[in-house]
Request: fold
Amino acid sequence: MGFFTVFSHLLPAQQLPHSAYGLPYINRISLYKESLVNHPQKQMKSLADIPGIRLDLRYASDNNFMHKQLYPENTKTSFLRYPAYLALDSIAREVGRMGLELVIFDAYRPYRITVKLWIPVKDERYAANPTKGSGHNRGIAVDLTLADLKTHQLLSMPTDFDNFSDSAHQDFKGTDSIRIANRELLKKVMEKYGFISLSTEWWHFSWRDPQQFEVLDLSFAELAK
Reply:
């Protein structure tokens, strides 16, 4: 596929601060920069630099299951680690040739937001346990869908984003054939370029080798600099 596997070394856990849940994480930009020394492939890249995607960051508004804004209102982009960014760029180009575009609901998620999301859910099928962190915190997970490139109309999917029911599962069959076909198209193209699907959420895909990337609790503004 032309994409490389990251052979990196995490900063030693004893050198990192630990969250209230005991998880080592990076919460200062100086530590993030240190983690990139000799490992530039771990850098976070802005998705706004990818042609053919549209950002609809649900946690930067109240259009989410929490019904409140969790990211700063002026959040205009999100981020992924470089290998995942390269793969997403190729995916955007491929779906563009189909007359479609990628719509991004979420990608990088600061660890502090994962803590907030866990409190009302506490179900690891649908929310990350703060004792482990998530692919979003590591900058390798993306929540997305497909839309018509000309009209920008979202393709019909089995559910909306953040639907915590069996209807959102990848193998759910109790819906019409169009929604199933659209879900399968998204899964097929994401997996073609190296992303791994989540069985309980049709919109969620993660890059491989999560153990190669530290959990981050940096603001979008800090990463943008």
Notes: Residues 1-8 have pLDDT under 50 and may be disordered. DSSP finds six helices and seven strands in the chain. The radius of gyration is 17 Å.
